[in-house]
Every structure is written in C-alpha cells, then in structure tokens.
Request: fold
Amino acid sequence: MANIINNQKIIAGMRLFLKVIIILIIVAFVGIQFFQPEKNSGTESETDIFHTEQIPGDVAKIIKNACMDCHSNQTRYLWYHKLAPVSWMVSEHITEGKKELNFSEWGDQDAYDKFGAFEDIAKEVERKTMPIKSYKLMHKTARLSDEERTALTDWCKKRSAELTEELKE
Reply:
C-alpha cells in the first residue's frame, strides 16, 4: 500500500514538473517575441539592377523570385518571418546576403565589381549553392529548374563578356 502511495506522489510530482516546464517554455517564447530584428524594407531605387541593366523578362523573373529577398533592400516577409527565433535567422541570412551582393545598389558598383559579381552569380547558380537550401524549402518559386539555371547563368556570362570588352577599351 505504501508503494502505491509513493508511486502516486512521484507521478503527481512529475506532472507538476512537466506543467512548470511547459509554462516556462511558453513564457520564454512569448518573451522573445519582443526582441525582433530590424526589417529589410527599403523602396525601389534608381540604382537597382532592374533600372541599370537590360535584363530579359525570364531572367528578371528568376532574379525577383530567387534572389531579391536576400540580395536587395526589399525583402518580402511571410507570416512566419515575424516569429522569433525564425525572424533572427531570416535577418541574419539577409544581412549576409546583402554583404555579398546587393542588387538594390547595383548601379553604384564599378564595371570591375559588376564583372566579378556576374562571374560569382554564374558559378554559385551552376554549383546549385544559390539559392540556399533553407530558402528553397520555404519558397517554391526559388527552386530553379535546369532551364532557369541555364538562362540565368548564360545571361550572367554574356554580361561578363560584354563588361570584359568594355574594360579593354
């Protein structure tokens, strides 16, 4: 009889412990929502790639769908991007992406930087390292087909060759 009473006390204690843990997790989750990163929500500028380059329609669509959220000043946020800690991860991806390449400031780059960027874009897309896997998981339109990869890399290589000729002059 004493064993049964002890077991019931242990089970009751474990239930209480579990309830406290669940409440602490909920309170922590609610608490971290008050610490949100700054949003990347600029406006279109005269220096962005769409104003400074002649981009074929299919390539422009690829860039908008697969690149601009992380590589420009105009991120399209989805509902879950507003929830910490997801918002922190998204903000970090955007910060890193813009550090590497910012299409919103494309017109501010000189021809040498643009040449390097075109070469890098073609290489990353061919290797399938861009867009990054976590982005493709959540954004169906960023999952590039072989034809889209070819269109983007061909255009980048063409612009790279054109810049090479311009730099020779």
Summary: The two ends are 97 Å apart (CA to CA).
